[in-house]
Amino acid sequence: MSRIIENVDVICQHKADGDIIPIKFRFMNEDKEYETYKICGYRRLSGPGTYTTPDGLLVSGTTFIFECLVIVLDNKRKVRLYFERNNCKWRLGL
């Protein structure tokens, strides 16, 4: 089962056409320390309608989903960022 982190800070670029490009994110780990990751690559996965993601989140058409490539301890890893447009909230799926 995937782990969801609810409180995520994200730096992103907002394009003139309304598109969002995630650049960097951070979250507080179990030791109460921030972990920060630069996004090396991404692809947008948002789909139509309401459905449950592989991370177990129920999302709707107003949720942007990004599969992001980050480097963790010299290893490439894919994570998912979820942006809820209605309340401007970011979540992270590990």
How would you sum up this structure, described in words?
The chain has strands at 4-5, 8-14, 20-28, 34-38, 41-44, 51-52, 58-59, 63-72, 75-84, 89-93. It is globular and about 35 Å long. The N and C termini lie close together (9 Å). With 94 residues, the chain is mainly beta. The relative contact order is 0.26. Strands 1-10-9-8-5 form a 5-stranded antiparallel beta sheet, with no helix packed on it. The mean pLDDT is 91. Strand 2 (8-14) and strand 3 form a beta hairpin. It has one domain (4-93).
Helix content: under 10%
The main β sheet shows up as: 5 strands, antiparallel
Could you tell me how far the N terminus lies from the C terminus, measured between alpha carbons in angstroms? 9 Å
Total helix count?
Answer: 0
Q: Give the strand line-up of the largest sheet.
A: 1-10-9-8-5
Which regions are unreliable across 5 or more consecutive residues at pLDDT < 50?
A: none
Classify the secondary structure makeup into a structural class. Answer: mainly beta
In short:
The protein has strands at 4-5, 8-14, 20-28, 34-38, 41-44, 51-52, 58-59, 63-72, 75-84, 89-93. With 94 residues, the chain is an all-beta fold.
Key structural traits:
single chain, 60% strand, 94 residues, mainly beta
Ordered list of secondary-structure elements with their pairings:
Blueprint: E1 4-5, E2 8-14, E3 20-28, E4 34-38, E5 41-44, E6 51-52, E7 58-59, E8 63-72, E9 75-84, E10 89-93
Antiparallel strand pairs: 1-10, 2-3, 3-4, 5-8, 6-7, 8-9, 9-10
